[in-house]
Amino acid sequence: MSRRYDPAALVAFATSCAQSAGLPPDRARVIAEILVEGDLMGHDTHGLAQLTPYLESLAAGGMTAEGEPELLSSTPVLESWDGRKLPGPWLTRRAIEKACAFAKTFGLGAISIARSHHIGCLAAYGPPVAERGLMLVLACSDPSTASVAPWGGTQRIITPNPLAAAWPTPEGPVILDVSMSITTNGMTARRRAEGTRFPGQWLLDGQGNPTDDPKAFWADPPGTLLPLGGLEAGHKGFALGLLVEALTSGLAGHGRAAGATGWGASVFVLVLDPAKFGGAERFLAETGWMAQAVRNNPPRPGFDAPRLPGDGAMARRAKALAEGVTLHPSIPPALAKLAERYGVAVP
Predict the structure, then answer these.
(1) Which of 116, 127, 280, 296 would bridge 83 by S-S if both were Cys, CB 3.0 to 4.6 A apart?
(2) Contact 238, 219 (CB under 8 A)
(3) Confidence class of residue 1 from pLDDT cuts 50, 70 and 90?
(4) Burial of 325 (0-12, 13-18, 19+ CB in 10 A)
């Protein structure tokens, strides 16, 4: 039986490690909360698996511990920031709070962030916004690296470029977090380490041939991740990936054209207040109708019932909060090394 961990103890552990590594208490705490949320929701390549790389980046100077983001431009409903490689979860949560304030006054608020550090699991940011009756759209890319080729091409030019969103219904939030590639860098690295293949041809090798072998990604010439939609409809996924590039690095004004370097992210945050549009009650009537239409839809063979985006993640989260969270087998040994390094007790 898999060991289960108390989520609060994991947050306290990660906070202590991050503080010992040199992060201020508030930033350490936010990083810990967002990473543990990733594990609670089942996105375990972007949960505590990222804690060691984050702290190694901090030690190497790739993450900035202190200071504030630089305000580059502003209007009554938006701001553009230079994140100065400050901790991504702290920057993103702060940007969401600012956008929420704009939205409550004007109906919408947006923040673009250039030169953020990695922001973790995007789905983790959604539930608190939806609980306030607001709608969140969140996207990010990493302009310093690439892993996805254009449709019909063989050389990497963009990253998986996830797009997340959250909005309320009368019965709970809809939460989506979708990468614009069929798999991710983190999952590809994990499968290579495990010696396992993908369940389908989710990559191209360096010559552009479909493969299920994650090792092809690191071959010479290197392979690429197929866009969302795979071999049949990857042109759609790549088009969406370009949209994310425009929303993130494009609007932030700093990305691939500027020669971005170092692990990080360009981030786009948009918050909408339905009350300022057609009205909160009418919004919930529409989202509630759609939620019922999805859940009451007759299931096809092999499925118990259709479900809304986020139903699985929120169910896993509720179970983990009640019974403890199960970590991927690769994570506890990494946490044990951090505990020894920083003199912090393992949860």
Answers:
(1) 116
(2) no
(3) low
(4) buried
Whether the predicted model's global pTM rises above the 0.85 cut: yes
The mean per-residue pLDDT over the stretch 276-301 comes to 97
Cα atoms in the 13 Å half-sphere on the side-chain side of 35: 32
Give the C-alpha separation, 270 to 252, whole Å. Answer: 13
Burial class (CB in 10 A: 0-12, 13-18, 19+), 192: middle
H or E element: which one contains 173? strand 172-178
Rounded to whole angstroms, what are the CA distances from 33 to 13, 90, 204? 11, 10, 36
pLDDT tier at 159, thresholds 50, 70, 90 = very high
**What would the mean pLDDT of 83-109 be, rounded to a whole number?**
98
**Digit-coded pLDDT (tens) for 46-84:** 999 999 999 999 999 999 999 999 999 999 999 999 999
The pair of structure tokens assigned to 229 is 């939609």
DSSP single-letter state for residue 128: H
Tokens representing 308? 């809304």
Other beta carbons within 10 Å of 343:
9
Q: Are 134 and 163 in contact (CB under 8 A)?
A: no
pLDDT at 2 over 90: no
Domain 69-172+235-295, CATH among 3.30.1370.60, 3.40.50.2300, 3.30.420.310, 3.40.50.1820:
3.30.1370.60
* Token pair 């502003």 in the structure block, residue: 74
- H helices present in 178-325, as ranges: 185-194, 230-245, 251-252, 280-295, 311-323
The answer for residues whose C-beta is within 8 angstroms of residue 211's C-beta and 6 or more apart is 201, 203, 204, 205, 223
Burial bucket for residue 241 (CB in 10 Å: 0-12, 13-18, 19+)? buried
CATH 1.10.1530.10 domain extents, the chain: 1-66+307-347
Is it the case that residue 187 has pLDDT exceeding 70? Answer: yes
Residue limits of CATH 3.30.1370.60 in the chain = 69-172+235-295
Largest CA-CA distance found in the chain, in angstroms, rounded:
56
